[in-house]
Amino acid sequence: MSSPVHPRRKMLQGALAVAAVAFNPLSRSWAATAEPGTLHVPDFDGQLLLDTGTRASAADDFGHIVHHAPWAVLVPGSVEDIVKVVRFARAHGLKVAGTRGIGESHSTHGQAQVEGGIVIDMSALSTIHEIGAASVWVDAGVRWNALLQATVPLGKSPPTLTDYIDLSVGGTLSVGGIGGQVFRHGLQVDNVLEMDVVTGRGELVRCSRLIHRPLFDAVRGGLGQFGIIVRARIRLVAVLPQARTYTAVYTDLPRFLADQVLLIESGRFDYVEGSVSIANGGRSFQLEAVKYFKPGAEPDDAALLAGLSYQPGTLQVADSSYYDFTNRLAPLIAFLQSSGLWEYPHPWLDMFVPGTVAASFVKQVLDQTPEAEMGGGPILLYPFRLDKLTAPFVRVPPGRHAFLFSLLRTAVPPTEENVAALVAKNQLFVEQLMQVGGRRYAIGSAPPGPGGWREHFEPLWPSFQAAKALFDPDNVLTPGQRIF
Ligand SMILES: Cc1cc2nc3c(=O)[nH]c(=O)nc-3n(C[C@H](O)[C@H](O)[C@H](O)COP(=O)(O)OP(=O)(O)OC[C@H]3O[C@@H](n4cnc5c(N)ncnc54)[C@H](O)[C@@H]3O)c2cc1C
């Protein structure tokens, strides 16, 4: 239905882009003309680009910390192009990864980059194919924002949304996709019904809970290790047109956490999140809860807020349309982009903390986090229910609840030394997290050391390895995760 042309793609299609027609297996380099000793590159419906500008763009992401240039960028013209490029890469010992858009990955540590291989610009395939009563069938390059713009006018929405909705369907399904609705609906990977996947063997496979279940389970939150997701059927739920947002401040951490858990257990709200402020040497906690409603049937504020122990006088209530609520970060993102802060390094750390130790662990981390180490970036803290999670490779702590605890740092000053120190701090916090039974949310900048991934996936590490051997036996896919 819609297939937007992104400005970056226009740039790629410009005069500077050079298309490869041949590959030299000896020098492992591409050529724009067929020469003796070179192998013919498959005929793509789209383009394989190898100009310096395109490759340099593909060596960046939102983190601006890791820079690995690929040998080429595929701008696919069809799903068949992705099959062809994976088969070609497999045959010639090359690596391949998908990304939301060239240089537009929201990963912070090169997870979508491919040193000396091929990056696939998934934004080239971004059609919404069919909107049904209870699901929508989309290309993996579709962004959640575009999906919402198509479904909200019909009174429907994906059940769980990330805070920032300009992420790609394929990108968040490869990592998890968490937001304030998870306590009710699970992660985004728990709300995908069916996918078309090009495995590391170069086979296009449709998978779901009913067919090819092992692939379906491996790919959801599988960090791009088993296949390139090319299409997905996302569950839709009916949504009310308005959203009322309540924010209130706490000074006591255990009370804040207890109230958040009370809210997700009672199900009073449709969305529950929270954050920590460490400005000006103080520490406070902000609850953010949202109730959807129809005009004329406004929420009962008193009933919703009954029994909560936030600081008197700090409650704020604001109404918006449902879509504006989902797109609430747009003004902030526009500011970050126009001010140049978007281009600063972002050594982010996202953690899943066991509910039972959340108060002590959060305090321990905050005690070691001076304001300057956040660079003005937010700290997220909110609970979700683990019984809603179904994707085995999204590793979470045991128990009934876990908290997402995210240090979304901007490195100020943006020097290599500062970035290295912040990444080292992240790694230290992950060590402390593992000691209390937590797990990293594998999207940030805390690269695991030797044995770190094994520890992360235990007790499922043997299953993870077995799935790799089955679906990507030659280790073609997504080297930027640095797992294999
Ligand atoms: C401002 C901002 C806000 C964010 N908010 C949230 C949030 O609220 N909740 C949340 O869960 N996350 C959030 N994220 C993190 C986000 O989910 C991750 O960055 C994620 O990787 C998706 O980003 P992307 O679409 O740019 O994918 P990419 O970064 O391009 O890809 C992520 C990984 O998946 C692989 N990949 C990409 N497409 C495919 C595909 N089609 N098939 C197989 N593998 C693929 C890539 O190679 C890479 O390894 C946020 C990030 C930013 C920068």
TrEMBL record:
Q: Which UniProt keywords apply?
A: FAD, Flavoprotein, Oxidoreductase, Signal
What GO terms are given for molecular function?
A: cytokinin dehydrogenase activity; FAD binding
Give start and end of each FAD-binding PCMH-type domain.
66-239
Q: Per its UniProt record, what SUPFAM superfamilies does this chain match?
A: FAD-binding/transporter-associated domain-like, FAD-linked oxidases, C-terminal domain
What is the name attached to this protein's record? FAD/FMN-containing dehydrogenase
Q: Which family does it belong to?
A: Belongs to the oxygen-dependent FAD-linked oxidoreductase family.
Fetch the Pfam families from UniProt.
Cytokin-bind (PF09265), FAD_binding_4 (PF01565)
Source species, please? Stigmatella aurantiaca
- What InterPro entries does the record tag this protein with? Cytok_DH_C_sf, Cytokinin_DH_FAD/cytokin-bd, FAD-bd_PCMH, FAD-bd_PCMH-like_sf, FAD-bd_PCMH_sub1, FAD-bd_PCMH_sub2, FAD-linked_Oxase-like_C, FAD-linked_Oxidoreductases_BP
**In its UniProt record, which GO terms are filed under biological process?**
cytokinin metabolic process
Q: Which residues form the signal peptide?
A: 1-34
Top-level division of the source organism's lineage: Bacteria
| Cofactor(s) required, per the database record | FAD
